Amino acid sequence: MLMADVLPCALLEGCVVTGASTENLKEAVQAYQGNHSNLQFLDPEVLQVHVPPFVTKDDPVSGSHGHNTFERNQRRRSYIKKKKEKIGTSVEGNVENKEAIAEDISVPKDIDLIALPQLCFPGGLQVSSIEKEDCFHFLVFTDVFGNRSHGVVVQYYKQVQVLQDGSSYQNGQPHRALSRLSKLYAPYAICLISKYAYYNALKDCLSCLRLQLKSCRDSDIEDRIKEFAAKLTLVPTPPPGHLHLVFNMKPLQIILPSQEDVDGPVIDIDLHFPFLCFKPKQVLKIITCILMEQRIVFFSSDWALLTLIAECFMLYIHPLQWQHTFVPILSRQMLDFVMAPTSFLMGCHIDHYEEVATETDDIVLINIDRGTISTSFPPKLWIPDVPAQTSECFLYRVRGLQMHYDLELSHLGASTDLNHLRSQRREWQQTLNLEIQQVTLELIVNIFREVNNHLNYEHRVFNSEEFLKTRDSLDQPFYKKVLETHIFHSFLKARLNRKMDSYTRMEINTRSETHRMRASLDIPIRPTIQEMARKHSRSENGLSNRLGMSMPNLSYEKPPEGPIRQNSLKRHDLEIGNVKIVRKSTKLFKLPEFPPPLVYYCIQNYYNELISLLSKAILSVSPEDSALLARYYYLRGLMNTMIGKRLDALADFQNLYKTDIGIFPNELLKKLVDSLVQDERCQVEKRPELKRLISKLKKENEGERRKCDDHVKTFELPKKHMQLEDFVKSIQESGIVKDNGTIHRLFDALTVGQQKQIDPETFKTFYTFWKESEAEAQDVHLPVDVIDHLDNNECVYKLSCSVKTSYGVGKIAMTQKRLFLLTEGRPGYIEITKFRDIEELKISSAAFLLLRIPSLKIKTTLRKETFEANLKSECDLWHLMVKEMWAGRKMADEHKDPQYMQQALTNALLMDAVVGCLQSQKAIYAASKLAYFDRMKLEVPMMVPKTTSEMLKHKINPSANLTSPLAVDVLLYTPGHLNMCEAEEDSSPKLWCALDDGKVVVFDAASWSLQPNCIQVGSMKLNCMLGLEPSQVWIGSTDSTVYIVNTRSMSCNKQLTDHRSEVTDIVLEKSDKFSQAQAYSSSMDGTVIMWDIYTLKVKNRFHLDCRGLTVLKLFNGTLWCCGVDSILELRKNGLVNRRLQHLDDSRETPLFFNCFELFIERDQLWTTSLDSAEVCIWHIKDLSRPFHKIQLQDCFGVNCMIKVKNQVWIGSRGISQGKSKGKIYVVDVVKYSVEKELVAHTDVVQALCSAEDRYVLSGSSSEDGKIAIWKVE
Question: Of 127, 180, 407, 675, which residue is most buried, by most CB within 10 angstroms?
Answer without folding.
Answer: 127
